[in-house]
Amino acid sequence: MSDLTHLTIAAALDGLAAKKFSARELTNAHITKMGQAKGLNAYITETPDIACAKADASDKRRAIGDKVGALDGIPLGIKDLFCTEGVQTTAGSHILEGFKPTYESTVTTKLFDAGAVMLGKLNLDEFAMGSSNKTSYFGNVINPWKRQGDNTDLVPGGSSGGSSAAVAARIAMGATGTDTGGSIRQPAALTGTVGIKPTYGRCSRWGIVAFASSLDQAGPIARSVEDCAIMLGVMAGHDPKDSTSVEMAVPDFRKGLTGDIRGLRIGIPKEYRVDGMSQEISDLWAKGAEWLKAQGAEIKEISLPHTKYALPTYYIIAPAEASSNLARYDGVRFGLRVPGNSLDEMYELTRAAGFGKEVKRRILIGTYVLSAGYYDAYYLQAQKIRALILKDFTDAFKDVDVILTPSTPSAAFGFHENEDDPVQMYLNDVFTVTVNLAGLPGISVPAGLDSNGLPLGLQMIGRAFDEETLLRSAQALEKAANFTALPAGV
Amino acid sequence: MTDTLINDKNLIDGRTGKWEVVLGLEVHAQVTSKSKLFSGAATEFGAEPNTQVSLVDAGFPGMLPVINEVCVEQAVKTGLGLKAQINLISVFDRKNYFYADLPNGYQISQFLQPIVGKGTIVLDLAEGEHREVGITRLHLEQDAGKSLHDQHPSKTYVDLNRAGVALMEIVSEPDMRSSEEAAAYLKKLRSILRYLGTCDGNMDEGSMRCDVNVSVRKVGDPLGTRCEIKNVNSIRYVAAAIEHEARRQIEVIEEGGSIRQETRLWDPGKGMTRAMRSKEQAHDYRYFPDPDLLPLKLDAAWVESLKAGLPELPDAKRARFVKDLGLSDYDAGVLVSEKESADFYELAAKGHDAKLTANWLTSELFGRLNAVGKSITESPVSAQALGELVGLIEDNTISGRIAKDVFTEMFETSKSAAAIVDEKGLRQVLDTGAIDVEIDKIMAANADKVAEYRSGKDKLFGFFVGQVMRAMGGKANPAMLNERLKAKLAG
Predict the structure, then answer these.
(1) Chain A: residue nearest B99 by CA?
(2) Is A183 assigned a catalytic role?
(3) Residues of chain A positioned with their CB less than 8 A from the CB of B144
(4) N or C: chain B end with fewer CB closer than 10 Å?
(5) B106 contacts in A (CB within 8 Å)?
(6) Is residue A2's pLDDT more than 70?
(7) Is A473 a catalytic residue?
(8) Average pLDDT value for residue range B290-318
(9) Which pLDDT score, from 0 to 100, does residue B481 have?
(10) What's the pLDDT at B1?
(11) Which of A183, A204, A224, A245 is labelled catalytic?
């Protein structure tokens, strides 16, 4: 094995078990590569010392024949939205710069208990608000992919852009992400990686900096469906500390990957053929359906009639919750404080200096839609539409088992494209937000390259808590797509 | 509200005629529980600042609330005690505002769907009058922390011990018409909470706080504009604040002004209320359902089991004391007003005459305790000891007269009645022979009076009783003495 960083998690676990290499060697290979890939700005905080110590501990467990976890010795990156004990957790914001939690999020606790090695904390859009990673206080993350014959830096997607870039650039074998409106699936699609947002309630939100509580959900980004299945199996599970986490057994997702999708009914929602969709995306979507059909699945056209209301609904509910969730960053107890002559002035100065433009925009929108006189027209109306969107899916899943759609309306774009119009930026989430609003599991699988040589993803949506079927069909898609392209220089 | 509530004695005389004051109360009652509403932190009163604060209470990033089932149970019990509707589905909302002692920037409360709906409470008024007041709702919410402005010349310190403690906000209908009724409402509510064990009702520790809505109107007019008086922290102040605020409003209106809807603060030092903020300055709290918490769903069978397990509450207890024990409504009311008194009484009266025991408790023990400023729980005479004293009267060991002396000593020394009676030889003389001997002596020494009595001066009978009693050190059984004396004097 010339370069350990190119292994999948599944292959690396085999290699570690067979003692072909040590966890320390695997970790060192990643640390070396992180040093070479600093230009991507994927990590906000690198933790090589912690990584080496964890890797050594893993090697020791294997050496003495101790019990090993499902991810023992596997180097991962952690989105900097997950609170990590003793390690700076910023949420990509100046207001939390220097904040070192005294506690560890439930999801990262589970990963580390399973033997995972943390390489560092990954960059993201500030408070996970964005689709390009341009809103991070700690600078843009650069997508390792470039258009053919064009050296323009492209966005890695967002908000889990550090996660997607790191996994694509082989400076993490897998990474945690969070997905509120597409923040795992869209960056995965833009970087040729696989990302799954599980059902709302599948993973604990405890210890994850909240953006929009009713939509936020943690999930993995990795380089194969199988790797995602392995990671999700560790990350998922009921947590009594999160009242919205569901008390339900976690199936063995990896075992569920049987490769058999015969008889599975795949829905193609006609409302997802949006205006101005490129021929490339449209063709890829059709190809995806053919691939699944060829493996014995049945393709059906379905209707999700309220799809067109999803984006405005999302951009009311998410900012509303965010405006309240972010009220705690007030300079009183932790994070940034800019002193003022009164309490109100301290609030104003602290929050003016601590939050970036996009975060402020969403706090303003959210405050507005919850205000007296506007609540009924916006927030309440949005909640009603949300219920209708869920009903669309519930009805559709009477006839189909999985839904196939594009992941994004386009491939990765440049940093100065979509710049002036926030609504244009919000359109990146057009295929993904419905899934969050309905609380369903969704996965993005790399399915091909566009004419510029950039990866494109297809999204599959499953029934609530049926990640098994979703992962099984995603793997079928993955197998047929046989996506082997690599970013230049990786 | 209608004319049925109008009572002439409650009307206030103004320059332009009689005014009616309309009152509604919002009480914040701290739920008796070991830990907070949404965290495991302790709730003990008086701890060092910031020693009872979890990461959840302090609003750290990524922290999530988890409902404390004990607090839910306490709220449901309280609702049942107020004969209120229990809502099997209720919703927690966020009430958003910025303040240094509100760590999350929002308070978790219940806005549109409270856990408890409409109920009633019966006021016990002077002269044995009872009147029903409506409860609008009861909801659960978190308390905020405490801002300490006096610790540093330019800075404010924050103590988060109280942040997140469970409160029940209990809102009454605008059914009260005088400060006496408001005071009676608070006393009765506090009594019910204490009977239920759902709130300790200690206003001086802030575990029961009161906001009063006051408006005035001419009799028969529609409701006037109300002012809310915040944080009036004793029953006495509630009464004083209402008196002051009603007169202030009447004056404003009679001088041609109008009342602005506003929040006012009671200043106990000056004995007056002052404006805090007007309706226009009121916060827009941007209530919305808390997405971190699912709607609270209660099991009907569980609510029923709580109902079945409720203790006997003051109204039922009073009715029982009247019906089964033959007490007067007044005495029964006095005994049941505090759970501790009622418990004390029931223990003392066990196996003894109910009315006699009640008399001893209400007229003797309560009086003594009042005089020395002690509560019934601090009484030097225990319930059993009082019962024993009553027993000694019942079996004629001592007379009621002697019993008072014994009681005085019991109160001072905490000795038992029997011990005092034995020690001092106060046992009643029941031997007719011994009584006869004394009667004979007195008659012999007062032959002239005997003659007068026999010639028709009946009033002298009391003189002979007194003489014999004195001679016997008060220990003669009064009934026997009367009987023997009557016989002897009759010749």
Answers:
(1) A343
(2) yes
(3) none
(4) C
(5) 324, 327
(6) no
(7) no
(8) 97
(9) 87
(10) 40
(11) A183
Q: Which residues of B touch A92 (CB under 8 A)?
A: none
pLDDT confidence band for B4 (50 / 70 / 90):
low
List the single residue in A83, A321, A347 with the smallest CB-CB distance to B62.
A83
* CA pair distance B328, B377, nearest whole angstrom: 24
Residue of B nearest to A242 (CA): B64
The span from the first CA to the last CA of chain A, in angstroms, equals 16
Q: Which of A85, A328, A341 to mutate to test the interface with B (most CBs of B within 10 A)?
A: A328
Write down the pLDDT at residue A396: 98
Q: How far is A260 from chain B (nearest CA, A)?
A: 37
pLDDT in the model for residue B154: 86
Give me the pLDDT at residue A97, please: 97
| B128 or A195: which leads in pLDDT | A195
pLDDT digits (tens, 9 = 90+) for A462-473: 999 999 999 999
% of residues, chain B, pLDDT over 90:
77
Fold of A1-490: Amidase signature (AS) enzymes (3.90.1300)
Quick: pLDDT tens for B141-194.
Answer: 999 999 998 999 888 999 999 999 999 999 999 999 999 999 999 999 999 999
Task: State whether residue A207 sits within 8 Å of chain B by CB.
Answer: yes
Q: Is B55 within 8 Å of chain A by CB?
A: yes
Task: Spot the catalytic one: A22, A33, A54, A79.
Answer: A79
> Which one of B104, B287, B288 makes the best mutation probe of the A interface by having the most chain A beta carbons within 10 Å?
B288
Interface contact B62-A105, CB threshold 8 A:
yes
Confidence band of A227 (pLDDT split at 50, 70, 90): very high
Least confident of A382-391, A453-462, B443-452: B443-452
Average pLDDT, chain B: 93
Class of domain B432-489: mainly alpha
- Write out pLDDT tens, residues B307-341: 999 999 999 999 999 999 999 999 999 999 999 99
Q: Can you give the pLDDT at residue A423?
A: 73
Give the largest CA-CA distance in chain A.
Answer: 70
Give the mean pLDDT of chain A: 96
CA distance B368 to chain A (A): 52
Within 285-324 of B, beta carbons closer than 8 Å to A belong to 286-288, 291-294
Q: Does the beta-carbon distance from B63 to A206 stay under 8 Å?
A: yes
The chain A residue lying nearest B159, using CA atoms, is A333
Q: Is A38 tagged catalytic?
A: no
Q: Tell me if A221 sits within 8 A of A194, measured CB to CB.
A: yes
Domain extents in chain B:
24-214+281-305, 327-424, 432-489
Residue B213 backbone class (left: φ over 0; alpha: ψ -120 to 50; beta: rest): beta
ipTM of the predicted structure? 0.96
> Is the pLDDT score of B428 beyond 90?
no
